[in-house]
Design a protein that fits this description.
Low-confidence stretches: none
Oligomer: single chain
Shape: globular
CATH superfamily: HUPs
CATH class: Alpha Beta
Helix content: 40-55%
Order of helices and strands: EHEHEHEHEHH
Bound molecules: 4'-phosphopantetheine
Number of helices: 6
Structural class: alpha/beta
Mean pLDDT: 94
Distance between the termini: 52 Å
Radius of gyration: 16 Å
CATH architecture: 3-Layer(aba) Sandwich
Strand order of the largest sheet: 3-2-1-4-5
Number of strands: 5
Length: about 170
């Protein structure tokens, strides 16, 4: 059996947080090639995103550059639509890496991993524990704080904090 060389780290990244950057860095520590896959929209709840797909991809690229992840090599960011397992196949990736914060993440992630395993038994789901320092960080908390004018500098890369300020100043 071959070792997995290439994994996908998928998400909505609306916007990317330091918690996401931590998970992507860990994925790169474990696997030589990592594709960060930015989903078109958060269809699971039928609501749109604060940032467009292009904006979210651009913020991720800037954030990974800023945080020294791109410098490691083997990491790229791509948008995707449709099923995650189809995207993994198109990219010849053998696994999906996601971060787990609290138990509350577990049930949802297990359900998605089970569904993906049903659709594509050849694609492995791998979970990494997020840094406890980022346990409470989520894109929705970041959006809420930023929309209320609160400082989010401790939760997101500096380039994202700037984009959030611009976004909510215009809103
Ligand atoms: O940022 P999130 O909410 O954790 O990301 C969820 C995402 C985008 C990874 C998930 O919704 C997804 O894989 N969407 C693509 C559609 C798909 O494959 N659905 C079946 C698995 S849930």
């Amino acid at each position: 059996m071959n070792h997995i060389q290439h994994v996908v780290v998928p998400g909505t990244f609306d916007p990317v947080t330091l918690g996401h950057v931590d998970v992507i860095g860990r994925a790169r520590h474990l696997f030589p090639q990592v594709t960060v896959a930015v989903a078109e929209s958060r269809t699971k709840r039928g609501v749109g995103t604060a940032f467009t797909l292009d904006e979210r991809v651009e913020m991720l690229r800037d954030a990974l550059e800023e945080q020294g992840i791109i410098r490691l090599g083997g990491v790229r960011v791509l948008p995707f639509t449709g099923l995650l397992v189809d995207f993994c196949r198109e990219q010849s990736a053998g696994g999906v890496v996601k971060g787990l914060r609290a138990m509350t993440d577990f049930e949802y992630e297990l359900q998605q991993a089970d569904l993906n395993a049903h659709l594509a038994p050849d694609i492995e789901s791998v979970f990494v524990m997020s840094n406890p320092g980022y346990g409470y960080v989520s894109s929705s908390i970041v959006r809420e704080l930023a929309s209320l004018g609160s400082d989010v500098d401790m939760l997101v890369p500096a380039c994202v904090a700037v984009r959030l300020k611009e976004h909510f100043a215009d809103a």
